[in-house]
Amino acid sequence: MNEFGDPAEVLTHATTDVPTPRDGQTLVEVRTSGVNFADGLVCEGTYQHQPSPPLVPGIEVVGVIAGTSQRVVGTTVGGHGAWAQFALAREADLFPISDEVDDATAAASHVVFQTAWIALHHRARLSAGDTVVVQAAAGATGSAALQVALDAGATVVGVAGGPDKVAAIRAAGAHLALDHRSDDVVAAVRDLTGGRGADIAYDPVGSATLETSRRCLSFEGRLLVMGFASGGPAPMVAANHLLVRNLDVVGVAWPAYRDHRPDLVADAQRSIDTRLADGRFAPLVAGVRPMSEAGDALGDLRSGTTVGKWVLRN
Question: Which tens digit of pLDDT belongs to each residue from 169-211?
């Protein structure tokens, strides 16, 4: 893309030179890539770590190290470049993939399961027996959080909009699947917990759901602020509500852990890969599309109609 704008309009096919790795970087021959909400922000020019055009979008890369047969999954240098035949990644940001995990599964899982794992285990101190409310639980990040919480022995309440998404949440094993369009989410969570409320609320939506998430929480509950997929200004949380009920509001920006806690990211990836290989984790995949349909895949994601995550392939 040569300019910022609507992905459907600014994404075009072009031929360019194969990138040259610098010190500490690796050239990856790309097989698949995930489609993430942040990729749309990069296209629009509103991402928090914004590169300048011309550029190739794509944060998440699955492929082989060029000139070898070593399959790897990871994130690209600068958070862009994966939607091409070749991409650059820092050596520290690449991880081996078990033979049992195919390329589409690897691409659909890396960023979202990393985010969910570190948010729930590290930031929210998830324990067996906790009750976890997951907003947008039929989406890529939410469905990963649902699986991470279930794996840890938590009681999980999944929330989404529409019967198809609620059915997907139920099929994924949630103890309670709610439709925010028709259900009273707070009342349902209180009823499930005997009036106590949830221990953790996982919220990647933002303005449209954050207050509901807060109201679902128990005494000493933890509200995970994961992002603002609903758009609009960042929501505010009343400090007196935090004080009276001893609540934690915890921000989670996973990309920062690659620099500040690479050990934590590596440990999480080993745990995730093991669970993908033995079937305990299975990313919810909306479908696999050619790279030429990247703009359409982003459009579907941003419309809120997608169940699961789109994967692009070369």
Answer: 999 999 999 999 999 999 999 999 999 999 999 999 887 788 9
Q: What is the pTM of this model?
A: 0.92
Eight-state DSSP code of residue 264: H
- Residue 79 host element (H or E): none
Q: Which CATH superfamily is domain 7-111+260-313 in?
A: Medium-chain alcohol dehydrogenases, catalytic domain (3.90.180.10)
Query: Would you give the end-to-end CA distance of the chain in angstroms?
Result: 18
230 and 205 Cβ atoms separated by less than 8 Å = yes
Q: What is the DSSP letter of 157?
A: E
What proportion of the chain, given as a percentage, has pLDDT over 90? 74
State how far the alpha carbon of 231 is from the alpha carbons of 46, 51, 227, in Å: 12, 21, 9
- CATH superfamily ID and name for 127-252: NAD(P)-binding Rossmann-like Domain (3.40.50.720)
Under a CB-based contact definition with an 8 Å cutoff, are residues 283 and 109 in contact? yes
pLDDT at 50 over 90: no
Q: Measured in whole angstroms, how far is the alpha carbon of residue 24 from the centre of its chain?
A: 26
- The Cα 45–Cα 2 span in angstroms is 11
**Torsion over CA of 10, 86, 252 and 40, rounded to 10 degrees?**
10
Buried b (16+ CB within 10 A) or exposed e, 101-131: bebbbbbbbbbbbbbbbbbbbbbbebeeebb
